[in-house]
């Protein structure tokens, strides 16, 4: 690979002083931002002007004004300064040692994670959780995230995928809806509204195919996501197809019931993902410890054992 030629950059301190003065259109405000005197800012700008051989500001009685050359220079460096700031924030963890940024699906957040975040906070009160939701896969190159919940087969290049739970589909409705619309046979579903999530259009067809149902129900309501479909079921609008994990609380409380015992495995699972080439942050290690406990079967090792295991794995393989 040929050597990279040396860059020829203007002096950076004068460039920084010019950028601040141009952004605020004021030497005084720029001096306050940079914590120096107005005279110092003015001198730095003159150094840059001498270096470039052009006038960057017109000195007016009541302030300054960018020249044509000054406008061109500011337009060019303003984006560069912003890119430097954004990239530094993305890479640096200087001010984020106790911040845990997680992206999740709306339904996973509302149906499973949010009801349990109080438990995580009680165990780790100094960790600030920043939870965002998106139907799209996380972009760890551009989003300032520690980890993301993702559904699929777990095979994503460049990502470590910690399996949490398989997707298990069951039909659910409210007890009052079931009392008003008895569902004794699978075929009876053709007589009621089926609540569909537009984010998961294959869930109802998958469950119906798994029970050998010959019907293709047309009486349906569409919702943007599964979480809204579940709320529709609670409000007596019809029968929703649900992931068991996300409605278990309502099933235990009796606010939702399943009219048929049959469940369907989709072949997909939910995973906690993070980049393989970045060692997990301390808050993420604690979150891994916590979420493994909540998704683990009864014979899973204790929290202390799991925590030690995570530390051992990370020490032997920083990319885990």
Automatic annotation (TrEMBL):
Keywords attached to this entry: DNA-binding, Transcription, Transcription regulation
InterPro entries xrefs: LysR-type_TF_proteobact-type, LysR_HTH_N, LysR_subst-bd, WH-like_DNA-bd_sf, WH_DNA-bd_sf
Listed Pfam families: HTH_1, LysR_substrate
Gene3D superfamilies to which the protein is assigned, alphabetical: Periplasmic binding protein-like II (3.40.190.10), Winged helix-like DNA-binding domain superfamily/Winged helix DNA-binding domain (1.10.10.10)
UniProt domain HTH lysR-type: residue ranges: 10-67
Protein family (similarity comment): Belongs to the LysR transcriptional regulatory family.
Protein name per its UniProtKB record: Transcriptional regulator GcvA
Organism per entry: Sulfitobacter porphyrae
